[in-house]
Write a structure and sequence with these properties.
By secondary structure, this protein is an all-alpha fold. It is built from 16 helices and two strands. The protein has a two-stranded antiparallel ribbon with strand order 1-2. The longest helix is centred in the first third of the chain and has 32 residues.
């Protein structure tokens, strides 16, 4: 939603000096000895919050090769909230981090409703042909009267989840909501009602021979094809044609991820392999489905992001990709090409958009650049090398 770094990324008083917590000096952030002190105070902070986890980290650092991939992922995800809290205290921005994390929490109802009601109930019970004959505007008017306010995705999700706690007592209202969800998600008119929404959007079929959506244009003397209007990106000077996903859209992608690292099958990071031979698969366009060339911990990043641990999620990204400001949705999609959903011919998780949003949310914090910069030099989530060589 934003092409440039938000003004919130700068401190309120640009001339105000940065006073760090834990007795750390600013120069320590750029000096190897100083970074050692940062690491030491982090470990002390961790011991105060979870002594067992601190001992586990210390023991693992001595011999990191004892960890298998799943155990390493579990350790990183356990540490990520502590890293987020520590950085909030170090830079004095804990309140701002908590405010942004609260935004994640308040949006959770959208994804719960999408999973438990829209996908499991509405889309299963009402098929596209039946949805096509529904009167969407009339259903929306009914819901507006029941809500006492115009229908929005957020309000729909909140009311429906509340109604589901007493399904028998709210059967009529839930039936109207079910029909409306099917109309909104399964018909062209319904999808046009929330063109940038996430609640009623379902993953599309991934046709490798039709990756670019085209529509017929018969306005000229010869038939031609063109992009739909909502896919056009106008070039305006040097501004980005794609400003990236907003928080709701990025969280939708993160929630769409099934966190394959729990099954040690995160193809987005390590490539989509043939189950029988173990060889990297080749897609219908002849492209090897190699996954992220940096083997970035994508699934772990998405899981942390869905829990509101967005600073920790950036810490996870920078383990393998400290220069993530140059990747994201602006440059690469090897991860999407190898997403596990490719096996089901479904749209992959838009991982680059999710990664970009994580970075933007951190940069939008006061001292956000300094937080990101520090994580490229000292990162306790990097079990094997938390400090520079």
């Amino acid at each position: 939603m934003d092409d440039h770094l938000p003004s919130a990324a700068l401190p309120t008083d640009a001339a105000a000096p940065l006073t760090l917590g834990f007795g750390v000096a600013f120069a320590d952030l750029y000096d190897k000895t100083g970074l050692g002190r940062v690491d030491a105070v982090f470990l002390e902070h961790l011991r105060g919050g979870d002594a067992a986890l601190a001992e586990r980290l210390t023991d693992t650092r001595r011999d990191p090769d004892t960890l298998d991939a799943k155990a390493e992922s579990n350790l990183i995800l356990a540490l990520a909230p502590h890293l987020q809290d520590f950085l909030g205290l170090l830079f004095g921005i804990g309140a701002e981090i908590r405010t942004k994390a609260t935004e994640h929490d308040t949006l959770a109802v959208l994804f719960a409703c999408k999973r438990l009601f829209v996908q499991r109930i509405a889309f299963k019970k009402i098929k596209p042909d039946a949805a096509a004959v529904l009167d969407g505007p009339a259903l929306e008017a009914d819901l507006t009267a029941r809500f006492g306010a115009p229908v929005t995705e957020r309000l729909f999700a909140e009311r429906v989840m509340a109604w589901m706690e007493d399904e028998a007592g709210n059967a009529e209202a839930l039936d109207v909501a079910r029909q409306y969800a099917a109309w909104a998600g399964l018909t062209p008119a319904g999808r046009a009602r929330f063109p940038k929404g996430v609640l009623f959007r379902q993953p599309g079929k991934n046709d490798p021979m039709a990756l670019i959506p085209l529509e017929a244009d018969d306005s000229g003397p010869l038939p031609r094809a063109r992009l739909p209007q909502d896919h056009l990106h106008r070039r305006d000077g040097f501004d980005l044609t794609d400003p990236g996903a907003n928080l709701t859209q990025a969280l939708s992608e993160a929630h769409y991820c099934i966190f394959c690292h729990h099954q040690d099958n995160d193809a987005c990071s390590h490539g989509l392999k043939d189950r029988k031979t173990g060889a990297i698969q080749v897609n219908a366009l002849g492209r090897e489905m190699l996954g992220c060339p940096l083997e970035e911990k994508i699934s772990e990043m998405n899981e942390a992001e869905t829990k509101g641990v967005f600073v920790g999620a950036l810490g996870i990204v920078t383990i393998d990709n400290p220069l993530c400001a140059g990747t994201g949705h602006r440059i690469c999609n090897d991860c999407m090409v190898a997403c596990i959903y490719q096996n089901q011919k479904r749209d992959p998780v838009n991982i680059p958009q999710a990664e970009t949003r994580v970075l933007k949310d951190v940069l939008a914090l006061p001292w956000g650049f300094e937080v990101y910069s520090l994580l490229t030099r000292w990162n306790p989530l990097n079990i094997r090398r938390p400090l520079p060589r």
